[in-house]
Amino acid sequence: MTGGAPISPDPLSTARLPALFIADLHLSAARPQTAAAFFDFLSGPARRAGSLFILGDLFEYWAGDDDAGSPFNQKVCLALRELAANGIAAFFMPGNRDLLAGDGLAASSGMHLLPDPASVRFGAQTLLLSHGDALCTDDLSYQAYRQQVHDPVWQTGFLAQPLDTRREFIEQVRNRSETAKRGKRADIMDVNTDAVANLLRAHGYPALIHGHTHRPGHHTYMLDGHRCERYVLADWHDHPAWLTYDYAGFSVYNHIPATKEE
After folding, report:
1. Within a domain: 2
2. Is the predicted pLDDT of residue 260 greater than 50, yes or no?
3. Is residue 9 part of a domain?
4. What is the pLDDT of residue 213?
5. What φ, ψ does residue 176 adopt, rounded to 5°?
């Protein structure tokens, strides 16, 4: 269910530095503080960037592109379109919460949709981008679920149902998922080392940037004689956070406010 805004045959050719990377905002009307932080980010730091990359789970859920019509989703898409109108190329890679994003979201928001994984090159530096859930291969039950919902036949059947039915189903899945997480060991919900190594090998040992695990960090590996880096993006549950890349390298912004959203 992926596509892209028909602006360039190679959307990533429009990417410019500095590049900002975010993930796991889980935006919804029920979290007004996070939404406000995102709108401030789009009108502030993102306007000074060359490119913005959103690596999945921008929304708490996306039930299909006809869900763009809700007032909250319309407001998010309009803010993203204003960013694009100011000359900042925005890219979106669907995550597990918004995997049904397609050309409708791209058209509504002005973003380019990316496959998972996707590579972008800035000078001599190649960055490999992923949401990250495909790397959590130790979580067998999740991977079975992921395979099901990424099946085009399943998606076609699901999207044929009324929007309210889809929303209700997603709410049920979210509730079951939260219950299941409480019964799982924390380590199996993190990325698998071999899965990361195989991905880096397959793409020529780039720097890897991903989200999903909600375990922000910077990891280095010596893999087949190559020094590789892996950056894990923070979620926005408590405060805004992003990774910046420019020709000086990587830097992290992680602002902790005085109060947290309940």
Report:
1. no
2. no
3. no
4. 96
5. -65, -40
Please give the share of the chain, as a percent, with pLDDT higher than 90.
83
Q: Exposed, middle or buried, 30 (CB in 10 Å: 0-12/13-18/19+)?
A: exposed
CATH code (residue 228): 3.60.21.10
What are residue 135's phi and psi, to 5 degrees? -90, -10
Q: Considering Cα of 157, then 143, then 63, then 110, what sign does the dihedral take?
A: negative
**If we measure between CA atoms, which residue out of 218, 219, 233, 225 comes closest to residue 201?**
225
CB 133 within 8 A of CB 210: no
Task: Output the six-digit token pair for 112.
Answer: 């380019």
Q: What pLDDT sits at residue 207?
A: 97
In this prediction, residue 238 carries a pLDDT of 78
Band (73; pLDDT cuts 50, 70, 90) = very high
- Domain containing 230: what range? 17-252
Overall average pLDDT of the 128-156 stretch: 97
pLDDT score, position 185: 83
φ/ψ of residue 215, rounded to 5: -125, 75
User: For residue 26, is it within any domain?
Assistant: yes
Which residues does 207 contact at the CB level (< 8 Å), separation at least 6?
A: 125, 126, 127, 128, 228, 229, 230, 231, 250
- CB 234 within 8 Å of CB 15: no
* Domain-embedded: residue 259: no
**How many structural domains does the chain have?**
1
Neighbours of 218 (CB within 10 A): 11
